[in-house]
Design a protein that fits this description.
Length: 172
């Protein structure tokens, strides 16, 4: 699958899940997608849950939804930090409103809640944030990948293979 004409924002903050960041990063690159690592702007180097560093390419303040064909948001506890930065939340909301793919895994559903884009939508996530998504108006299902329009959601690192197949298909 050649997607050389596509550009995806991969969001990052401290406490990101290593698998949920790096697996999408390399799968997207393998497909020819230009991956732009977008951080909060608080710093340029972010640490994973295990201390693995990643350097962002740009801060959320310096990008626009129109720059991207989609966004991937890894889990871990990073989404709880990401949603404290209005520009990160705004980026997700604007990409979603434009109809482009918004892909989240694990705890990244928190960003969907903060962006106000789950009401009436069907999603999945790590089970611990089910109540947050339901309280934001979503219907929650327990399955490896859930696709509702432009929203692509998954539960855990075990779901990464089917998650990324869905993301790549949506970008094509």
């Amino acid at each position: 699958m050649a997607l050389q004409d596509k550009k995806v924002a991969l969001l990052v903050e401290d406490m990101y899940n290593e698998f949920e960041f790096w697996y999408p990063y390399y799968r997207l690159k393998e497909a020819g997608v230009e991956v732009v690592v977008v951080g909060s702007g608080r710093t340029s180097v972010f640490q994973s849950k295990l201390g693995m560093p990643v350097t962002s390419d740009v801060a959320a303040d310096d990008v626009a939804a129109a720059d991207f064909n989609g966004v991937v948001i890894p889990g871990g506890y990073a989404p709880d930090i990401m949603r404290r930065y209005p520009k990160m939340v705004q980026l997700v909301k604007e990409i979603s409103v434009s109809g482009k793919p918004v892909a989240t895994i694990c705890h990244a559903g928190w960003m969907l809640c903060s962006a106000g884009i789950v009401n009436g939508r069907t999603v999945t996530s790590f089970f611990a944030i089910k109540d947050d998504l339901v309280n934001a108006g979503a219907e929650w299902v327990d399955q490896a990948v859930c696709i509702d329009g432009n929203l692509i959601t998954s539960r855990t690192p075990d779901d990464l293979p089917v998650f990324m197949k869905a993301v790549l298909k949506a970008l094509a």
